[in-house]
Amino acid sequence: MQEKGTISIHTENIFPIIKKFLYSDNEIFLRELVSNGVDATQKIKRLATLGQYKGELGDLTIDVSFDKDNKWIKITDRGLGMTSEEIKKYINQIAFSGASEFVEKFKDAKDANEIIGKFGLGFYSAFMVADTVVIDSLSYQEGAEPAKWTCDGSTEFEIGPGERTERGTEITLNINSESEEFLDQFKLQGILDKYAKFLPVPIRFGTKSENVEDGVDDKGEKKWKSVEVDNIINETNPIWTLSPSELTDEDYLKFYKELYPMSEDPLFWIHLNVDYPFSLTGVLYFPKVKNEFELQKNKIKLFSRQVFITDEVKDIVPEFLMLLHGVIDSPDIPLNVSRSFLQADSNVKKINNYITKKVADKLGELYKKDRKVYESKWKDIGLFVKYGMISEDKFYDKAKDFVLLTNTNGEYFTIDEYQEKVKPFQTGKDDKVVYLYATDADSQDAFIQSANKKDYDVLLMDSPIDSHFIQNLESKLENASMKRVDADVVDKLIDKDGGYESLLSEDQSNKVKELFEKSIANKAYSVEIEGASPEELPVTITMDEFMRRMKDMAQNGGGMSFYGAMPDNYKVGINGNHPLIDKILKTEDEEVQLKLAKQAFDLALVSQGLLKGKALTAFVKRSVDLI
C-alpha cells in the first residue's frame, strides 16, 4: 500500500539549513551513506554472532555504483535492512524539540556547531547533491516485506512496497544539475580513497584491470594477461586495529608508505592503544624533519571507527606534536553532524594528555635504551622535544631528562651534564653560570675561537625553534644565563674579575672614538672604547643580547614582531689595548688613520658576515692597497 506523509521536523526551514549550512564540504555525502551501510553490516554480523540471526550472512561487501547517463549514484549494503515502520521511525522523524529555536540559533555561526552535533542528520547529507533520494530496503526479520521510500528534498515523502529481494538496503541518489561533477569515476574513487580507505567492511567500486600470470612462452618466460577483478578500495584491518605483537617493523613502514608515498622512512613510531577512560587506537610516526616546519603537509589523520574524519587535529594532538605523522582513531571524540569540527569535551583533553605522555615515555625509553642511537637521531627529534618543552610545562618536566644540548664540537649533553661541564669555568663573579651559544658556527667562528682560547664551551643553537627554546631554557635554569657568543667580547660575557682596563688616556680614547665615528659615518653603529686582552680583535661588532634574541624570535615567529620591525643597531667595541690602536694613534697622517680605522671596522663586519656589495668590493681593493 502506497503511503504519503510529512517528515516530522516541525519546521519548513530545516532542509535549506541542512543543504546550506550543516555540511562544509558536499563530498562527505558519500562518506555518510557508506558509513551507514557499514554500521548496518556490522550489526547483522553481531546479531549472527549472538545467535539472533540464523540465516546465511553471504557476501557482505558494500557496493558503490553510478550511471552518468541516467545521473544516479547507488550505495548498496547487505546489512540489517529496514521495514517500512523502521524507515518511518529512523528516516522520517528528525524528532527534536524546539526546532524553531534551533533555526533561530543557527543564525549565529558560533552556536551552529554546538547545536547540530546533538542531532543524527547524517543521512540527509544526500540532499546536498540529489534532487530525489530513494531507499529500497528489506529487513533481516523473518517475513519482512521490502519497503521503498522516496523524497525530493522537501518535507514530503512517499513510502510503499519495495522491489528488493535480498536482505539489506540500496540508496539511490538522483543527482541534481549542480552536482554532476560527482558522476565521474575518478572523482568518486578519490572520495572513497579519502574517507573509506580503512573501513572495516569491504567496499567495492566496480572493477579494475589487473595483470595475472598466464603460463610461460616458448622461451620459458612468464606470460601475463589482463583480467578484470573487483575494485575493493579499502583495507579492512589496518595496522592500528591490530596488536603490536602481531606486527613487524616492515608492517609499520609499509603502512607509512601507504599514507605518505613520497616521504622518507620515519625515525620511529608509537602504537597507541587504550580503552579506558576513553577508547583510542592509532600509530604516530616521527618523520625526518628538514629543519623547517611542514605543517601543511603529511598531517595526522583522524578516524572514528575507521572512517576518515579530518586531518585538522589541533585540539586532540598537542600543538608541538602537529609535525608528527600517522593515524588516530577514537569513537569517543565528539563531532558535529558533519564530522568536520571537533566539539569541546573532557575526552578531548584526556586524549591530548595521553598522547603527550605516550610520546614523552617513548622518547625517554629510546634515550635510556641506546644513547648513541638517540644522539644520531637528535637533529630530527630535537625539533619536537624543544617545541614541546616550550609549549607545555608538563612535557618540559619529563623532557628535561632527555633533551640534548649540542656544542660546536658536535658533543651531546643533557642539561645536568652540561651544567656540570661548564660550571667550573664559566661562572662569573656574580656566581652565575653563563651558557654561551652560537646560532651560526661559520659566521661567528671568530667569537667561538675567542671563547675556546679561554677553555669556554659554546653551544650550537641553529634550529628554527632555538631562538624560543633559549628564552624558555633560561627561564627554567637556576642561577644561570644564556648569552650569544658574539653579543660582546668574551671577557664581558663572562665577567670574572672586572676584566681588562683600557690603557688609553681620556684624550687618546676621545681621539680614537672620533676617528672611528668619522670613518664609519653610520648612526646605526655606536662606538665605545673598551679594555680587552691585546690578543683579542682590535674591533668587535655586537648587538645587545636582549635585542638580538628578540629579533631572532621575531624572525622565526612568536609575537615579537615589534622588535623585528625595529632598525638594527650595533655596538662597535674598540679594544684600546690592541697594537693596531696604538699604531693608529702614532700615525700623524689623519687620512691614513681613517683608512686604518675603516679597515679594522670592515674586518669586524666581515667576521660577522655584515659586509656586502660595494662596501665589500671597496674593502678588498683597500686591502690590496695596504699590502
Provide a descriptive summary of the structure in words.
- Pfam families: HATPase_c_3 (PF13589), HSP90 (PF00183).
- Mean pLDDT is 82; it is low at 95-103, 105-120 and 559-564.
- α10 (378-391) packs across α11 (393-399) and α20 (590-607) crosses α21.
- The chain is α+β, with helices and mostly antiparallel strands and 627 residues long.
- The strands form 5 sheets. The chain has a 9-stranded mixed beta sheet, covered by helices on one side.
- The protein starts with a strand and ends with a helix.
- Helix content is 37%, strand content 21%.
- β2 and β3 (72-77) form a beta hairpin.
- List the strand order in the largest sheet: 1-6-5-4-7-3-2-8-9
DSSP helix fraction = 25-40%
CATH topology of the largest domain: Heat Shock Protein 90
Biggest sheet overview: 9 strands, mixed
> What CATH architecture of the largest domain do you see?
2-Layer Sandwich
Identify the CATH class of the largest domain: Alpha Beta
